[in-house]
Every structure is written in C-alpha cells, then in structure tokens.
Specification:
This protein has 252 residues and is of the alpha/beta class. The protein has 9 helices and 11 strands. Helix 3 packs across helix 4 and helix 4 packs across helix 5.
C-alpha cells in the first residue's frame, strides 16, 4: 500500500530553485534513506512533505488524499480540515529535537495526544510511559529537556512523534547534532523501528546505517534526484556524481 506519493515537486526561495521536479513514493513498511551533499534540497523536500513549507508546483498525496495538487493547471492545497486529517498520517523528528523546554519529558510526549487526538490524560500518560520504556527513558519522565543528553532528548522526540500513531515517520538528520556515542543510541532506536516495519523516510549522513536499514536509497544533488535504488547503490553507484560524493565521505 502506498503511504506517500510526491510528483514533480518544485520549490524555490527567491531566485534559487531548491527542488527541481522531484518525484518519490513510499510504500507501507518501507524505509527510505535520502543522502546527498549539504544544500542539495534534502531537508527542504522533507519540509515540503510534512507541509512545513509550501510547494510551488507538483502534488503531495497521503493515503490517496491530496494535500496539494496542480493537475488542473494551478496549485491548490486541500482545505484546512482535510490538511488536519492528512497531518495525522505523519510524524517528524527534527535535527535539533525541538522539545518544549518548559515541559517535562512526560508532558512533551502527552501534550499532542491530549490536545490534538483528544485522549484522556490517563490514557496518554499510560501510552507515553510505554514509549519511554521502549526508548530506555522511563526513569526520565519527570525530567526537563535541559537535564538530558542530546541522545536522550532525541529519543524523547522520537517517542513524542510515535505517540501520535503516525503511518509514516520522517527524520531530518536525526544524529547530526550528536557525538558518535549518542548517535549510536538514536540509530539503535531507529533500527528497531525498521525491524517493526515502521514506514520511515530518513535524511542522513550515516552511510553504514543507511546501507543496513534502508530498503530504498535516494541520492540528491543540486535539487534533483540523481540516482536511486536499493542499498547496493552505496557500494556500487552508477552515476559519477554519486561516486564523487561517496568517495569524498570515505576520505573524510
């Protein structure tokens, strides 16, 4: 079953064309890793997919419902009510955690289920504690983000996203703000989600992780998808631009 379909996505900031007619689809249970140099449009693509940025052209469809569509000649976004329903399909884990600093860990995880999904406080807290247990953080429920390591904050952010029961989870370079030891903690959690067949799209610089976890790899450069395929493209890229990028990473 197709969860997400994006067709011919175009996005510019001023005179700079950041996304040049990009298309991708994600099926249920699929893990897609998006790799490429800085400035290639990876994060912008995720921000368009999660409706944090508006597109200039193309279409975005979740579970058969269009969030945006230009097939009739002009770009139209769905109604506010329809977009609210579409937003419930996905979760997003940011590079810099984006936790509420004045909320405890438990409240960070329960706030949206209570106020958006309408769950009771007791139900939301019970589910949140199960998620924190999965993240190895049940003893941090009463702590505040400033009392946690970066790796712990990112695991809280993952628990917060999962608390909304999304059909697809987006990660925007979830380990780029972390040192190697904390990176391993977070990647272990994402790897376990992949084993449970959670549908995910992950922008990452961690090539070994992408090779091990992703079913589908997309290499982006200069706002375009240059090459895509299975994990084998990391070891055997066919495009010179992909080879140059991967060789540069190996040399670092």
């Amino acid at each position: 079953m197709e969860i997400l379909n994006m067709k011919n996505i175009r996005k510019s900031f001023g005179e700079t064309e950041v996304l040049k007619s990009i298309s991708l689809s994600v099926s249920e249970g699929q893990v897609t890793a998006i790799i490429g140099p800085s400035g290639s449009g990876k994060s912008t693509l995720l921000r368009c997919a999660t409706l944090l940025e508006t597109i200039d052209g193309g279409s975005i469809c979740y579970m058969g419902s269009y969030a945006a569509d230009d097939s009739e000649g002009s770009l139209r976004y769905a109604s506010a009510k329809a977009l609210k329903e579409i937003r419930s399909c996905f979760g997003l884990v940011f590079q810099n955690f984006n936790l509420f600093p004045h909320f405890s860990v438990l409240r960070n995880v329960t706030d949206a289920p209570i106020h958006v999904l309408g769950k009771s406080k007791a139900e939301a807290e019970e589910e949140a504690m199960k998620l924190l247990h999965r993240m190895g953080l049940e003893d941090k429920a009463k702590a505040y983000p400033c009392q946690l390591s970066g790796g712990q904050q990112q695991r809280v952010a993952i628990a917060r996203a999962l608390a909304m029961n999304p059909r697809i989870l987006f990660f925007d370079e979830p380990t780029s703000a972390l040192d190697p030891e904390l990176t391993a903690e977070v990647l272990k959690v994402i790897r376990s989600l992949a084993e449970e067949k959670m549908t995910m799209v992950i922008v990452t610089h961690e090539m070994n992780f992408a090779r091990q976890v992703a079913d589908h790899i997309i290499f982006m450069a200069n706002g375009c998808i240059v090459e895509e395929g299975g994990p084998e493209i990391i070891d055997n890229p066919t495009h010179a631009r992909t080879r140059a990028f991967l060789n540069k990473l190996e040399g670092e």
